[in-house]
Amino acid sequence: MKLQLGTIQTLKVARKIDTGYVLSNGEKEVLLHISEAKEELEAEQEVEVFLYQDKKGQIVATMTIPTVRFDAFDWAEVVEVVSGLGVFVDIGIKKEILVSSDDLPLLSSVWPEVGDELYVALDKDKGDRLIAKPVKEGDFGDDWDQAPKTLLNAPISGRVFRTSKEGAVIITEEGYRGFIHHTERKRDLRLGEWVKGRVIEVKEDGTLNVSLRPLKQVGMIDDAQMIIDYLEAKDGVMAFTDKSDPEAIKKEFHISKAAFKRALGKLMKENKIEQKDGKTYQKK
């Protein structure tokens, strides 16, 4: 009977050797290295183990049972990013598992970074090696926890598990689905990134619309300071005013024209800037 890679098996200790224990299912044998055993084992003792490939490609056993399996999703931390290949994640065993670039966004700028976490399950590649695959929304179906209406305007945190030009989908700490429209963020979000925002809508199906932008009055202060910093870096003058093209403003400052105008208005009221000849000048 074949020992299946990536499965949990109950095997018997056939014998102890210098490097660990040889386990058997009656037909096949596999090594449980001494560092992978959680206790001293005796001959003929039954032990539950997880089977994976070591760096030499050999199937080995560990008594550490990962929560990420073929039939079970869980979060796994990104421990290495390899351009063109993918990212490696820690599922709790000694070997890090590859998430292929084929299963990551086309734009590497929104790939996860070290420390981000991906919601993954195990799979096998064409070479029969263990890999991890990120969860897709279709894997959830409609099986989301329903958020209460009382969450409206409340702060919310979660991790990005889908990102696109249109927006990003997060799984919140509480297990709710949250959608962040591209207009409700200042930059594209990485897959696996942890974000903090606020609930701007609780939909009838119990999912959330979330904004990463501060409330207008708070955002205006932040945007005004950003404009001052920008002016100081440009020797007190910039070729942007409240009449500038919205797309040019968005590209340069990553905020909407409306937010830009609010911030300019605040600074003009405070007598910190003036506009003339199609430019904005910082007052000293």
From TrEMBL:
SUPFAM superfamilies: Nucleic acid-binding proteins. Residues 153-213 form the S1 motif domain. Pfam families: CvfB_1st, CvfB_2nd, S1_2, WHD_CvfB. PROSITE patterns: S1. It comes from the Bacteria. GO terms for molecular function: nucleic acid binding. SMART domains: S1 (SM00316). Belongs to the CvfB family. This is S1-like domain-containing RNA-binding protein.
